[in-house]
Amino acid sequence: MSYAVLFEKTDTGYSAAHWPDLPGCLAARSTLEETADLIRGAMRMHLAGIAEDGEAIPEPKTIAEYIVAA
Questions:
Q1: So where are the chain's domains?
Q2: Which CATH architecture has domain 1-70?
Q3: Phi-psi region of 45 (alpha: psi -120 to 50; beta: other; left: phi over 0)
Q4: How much is the pTM?
């Protein structure tokens, strides 16, 4: 499954601060690549925890797109 995640530039690096379909799953590092790698691992752990709790894995519903303001 693929989930949309928004990365935000911070004063000290990047954070994956908003994951609409998996609330509570966060990561932050100094580079975008490091943050992306970390959030992938966090996602696997988050989904495993949901499954261990006997809950349904949420289906991805979010669609992300850039819109040009004209």
A1: 1-70
A2: 2-Layer Sandwich (3.30)
A3: alpha
A4: 0.76
Other CB atoms within 10 Å distance of the CB of residue 62: 13
Per-residue pLDDT of 23-69, as tens digits, reads 888 888 899 999 899 989 989 999 999 999 999 999 999 988 899 99
Q: Is 46 within 8 Å of 22 (Cβ atoms)?
A: yes
DSSP code per residue over the chain: -----EEEE-SSSEEEEE-TTSTT--EEESSHHHHHHHHHHHHHHHHHHHHHTTPPPPPP----------
Residue 70 is predicted with a pLDDT of: 84
pLDDT beyond 70 at 17: no
